[in-house]
Amino acid sequence: MNDVVENQGKLFDYVAQFYPDMDTEDFIKTYMAGKTRKSIDEAQAYVNTMSARELWEYFRETEHYSLKPGRALDGFMPDWIGEFYAYYQWYYNIPSREVLKRIPLDFLEKAYFGLHDLELDLAVQKVGKAG
Hints:
By secondary structure, the chain is an all-alpha fold. The chain has helices spanning about 1-20, 25-30, 35-40, 45-50, 50-65, 75-90, 95-100, 105-115, 120-125. The longest helix has 17 residues, at about 1-20.
């Protein structure tokens, strides 16, 4: 579980850092609702053992995804959001596609400044099951 949490943070950060003129938010929303993340939910070893870069390539190919022009998330935010969503999914044992319905990305971006200094489990508990 810790590897999944850390790797998802690295994945979101990778996309934001390497594609600064692209829409990180669209990527996150598409990824969380996609087949690749569902495979991780189902603990499929092949996908669960990929590095962030390998996961990005696999996601693009599997889901036929292309980044949209826009704004990348700044600083540590994409990494933290990736870790938060992965931990939240595990903690409440819900499908990843449900996470964004409970905790919309715009809410999490606003809450980041008050939550990111907390331990991840405390941040997830503070936000709570219903968001």
